[in-house]
Amino acid sequence: MKGPLFYAKILLFGEYGIIKDSKGLAIPYNFFQGALKTSNNLTDVAKKSNANLKKFYTYLSTIDKEKVHFRLEELKKDIDNGMYFDSSIPQGYGVGSSGALVAAVYDKYADNKITVLENLTRDKLLKLKEIFSLMESFFHGNSSGLDPLNSYLSLPILINSKDNLEPTGIPSQKEGKGAVFLLDSEQIGETEPMVNLFMNKMKNEGFRKMISNDFAKYTDACIDDFLHGNAKSLLRNVKQLSKVVLANFKPMIPKAFHSLWQQGIDTNAYYLKLCGSGGGGYILGFTPDYVKAQDILKNYKLELVYRF
């Protein structure tokens, strides 16, 4: 038995901002994926996943049946028969490992599920997001539901605000010099402590002002530029966003990367930003010249996401 594949996601823009209702843009990233599988002979990794699914099953049985109804007996039987989530999506890296698992379980075990094939009205998207938020809270204590939504639909999603989402198209990749890439910090990041840190910072009026003025302004401009294929303007705005993040989100950036971050801003060779909640995992990079950036960052593992 092997279920359909569910992909990783990258929140290109909007980390933390979407908690406070600014814009965001999430895209599927099919370099990493996961699927539900069953085996009689589980490896250690699969055993761990199977044990995690048991806990997840217990949690799902507490969710309000009015919101979403799961075929729990079938799920429990499959788990007892050795079902696990076979995934290449790195955990704690900000690319939606738990989101893909949530999407896979909803797809296989939810009754009356909303499917990708139907007309995805805003109401349906919001209902899906609410269900996924409830499900994914098991992993993070608090979830927007966006990662599973992206993984489930496998479509780029534009977040205009908490209650306004829409599937969107992104410009097709060009054979240009510019690129979006992932830089591996080789450290695991944990979502919950980072989000708690952000919430504490939000108690500070100066920080709140910075979020609603500078952070939201540059995030919105970056999304607009990206969706319209305005590469020059995009890089200008990403540079400003990179500065704002370095100045105000230092605890979310692993210490070893503070000077590398600044170097990008100073040289204009690349600009870094958080990928997900930060604290480790991947860091997102934007560059006008990927070959040059690769050379400067040759001591780090990079993954290409998008060319422009």
From TrEMBL:
Keywords assigned: ATP-binding, Kinase, Nucleotide-binding, Transferase
Matching Pfam families: GHMP_kinases_N
UniProt GO MF annotations: ATP binding; kinase activity
Domain of life of the source: Bacteria
Presence of the UniProt keyword Hydrolase in the record: no
Domain GHMP kinase N-terminal: 83-147
Name of the protein in its database record: Mevalonate kinase
Protein species of origin: Aureibaculum marinum
